[in-house]
Write a structure and sequence with these properties.
globular; six-stranded mixed β-sheet; disordered N terminus; 375 residues; disordered C terminus
């Protein structure tokens, strides 16, 4: 998609969106139209604002979002999707991307990612007739036309750390991030907290030995190179939180396993098990720290079209409402890992477990005889 240009697509019942594209024009056939109930013939425009790294080929955050829009198309095939991608992640470019969606009269505008927090805070009062949805952030005291949705990534990353500690044979675990941003550093912290918790509670002897950042969410080749270096240093479980760069890490895991190595990769946002399948059978993906962005999008659009948009609200999506977590099925888990991860999940839900939010909290966690949670 060319930067800063708006693309219009009529969402179809049968079209799997891989992003917004202007090179094809799709139309609903007469048979499909006849099958749509009268109350479902609702024609409205959904605006989607993306940052500069908003690629669709990484099977993570943005791809999951478009799965949600696709799923909604099954219900309302006459809705239209309008996308605007910023040229860069500078404030003026992000602002321009959202303004363009407002100018072409989007009825509801989604901002994909916390990068749009300040932009939405500034713009949503200027367009009271448009509904705004910020996915992955929070704005204090929003107006009636804004909904913010936050995901408790600390829960899924922590569980991934527990699973990693219970699986590693070398005791050496790695983390590969994309842009070295505050959010990525927190993912690293939460993952390490899960590893340390497993050491404390289950007697594992694992540690986070290698941490690297690609400084990009799109450089697949660099992701593979850094993963190769990490694995060669003795790491046998790697958590990749780097978008398409993380897919490069998966490429390297596949190469090593096909050669007889024993390494694992933990995916991010989406269940990446199938993406990790190899020719010799099985998958290199141990588990994934899943974010059910698609479900949240579907729920919001359903409320909007029914006239019940949760105006001025803030949704928190976590384990308690199926917003985050590990996949329901993890074929590469041992039975012991299944049981202990489930036990940890139950403690989180019962609020009997601390998930650190900062480095100081991580040290406090290790000093507590009984570990308690606080968000």
């Amino acid at each position: 998609m060319t930067a800063m240009k708006i693309k219009l697509i009529t969402i179809l019942l049968v079209v799997a969106l891989g992003g917004c594209s202007s090179s094809h024009a799709f139309h609903i056939n007469k048979e499909s139209r006849a099958e749509v109930a009268k109350e479902e013939r609702i024609n409205f425009k959904i605006g989607v604002a993306m940052g500069a790294d908003g690629g669709m080929g990484d099977n993570t955050f943005h791809a999951i979002a478009f799965q949600g829009f696709n799923q909604y198309a099954d219900r309302y095939p006459l809705s239209r999707l309008q996308c605007s991608q910023a040229k860069t992640d500078k404030e003026e470019d992000l602002l321009h991307a959202v303004r363009e969606l407002a100018v072409i009269k989007s009825d509801i505008i989604f901002g994909l990612g916390a990068a749009f927090t300040e932009i939405f805070e500034k713009l949503h009062p200027q367009y009271p007739h448009i509904k705004f949805v910020l996915l992955g952030g929070n704005i204090i005291n929003p107006s009636e036309n804004l909904l913010t949705v936050d995901f408790l990534d600390q829960q899924s990353s922590f569980l991934a750390g527990v699973a990693a500690a219970l699986t590693t044979k070398t005791g050496a675990i790695g983390f590969l991030g994309g842009q070295e941003l505050e959010g990525a550093k927190r993912q690293q912290l939460w993952f390490e907290a899960g590893i340390r918790y497993a050491n404390l509670m289950y007697g594992t002897m694992a540690s986070l030995e290698q941490v690297s950042f690609t400084h990009s969410f799109t450089d697949r080749r660099l992701g593979q190179k850094l993963a190769r270096d990490i694995y060669l240093d003795g790491v046998d479980v790697l958590f990749a939180c780097a978008g398409a760069s993380g897919s490069g890490a998966m490429d390297e895991a596949k190469v090593l396993v096909e050669k007889g190595g024993e390494v694992w990769l933990i995916g991010m946002d989406n269940d990446q098990f199938l993406e990790g399948e190899i020719f010799s059978g099985g998958s290199v993906v141990l588990t994934s720290a899943v974010k059910h962005l698609d479900i949240a999008i579907y729920e919001i659009l359903e409320l909007y079209v029914r006239g019940h948009f949760p105006a001025g609200g803030h949704w928190v999506k976590g384990l308690h409402n199926h917003g985050v977590g590990l996949p329901k099925n993890n074929p590469n888990f041992s039975q012991m890992t299944v049981e202990r991860v489930r036990e940890t999940e139950e403690k989180i839900l019962e609020e009997n477990l601390l998930i650190p939010f900062g480095p100081g909290d991580l040290e406090k966690m290790l000093e507590l005889p009984l570990i308690r949670m606080g968000f």
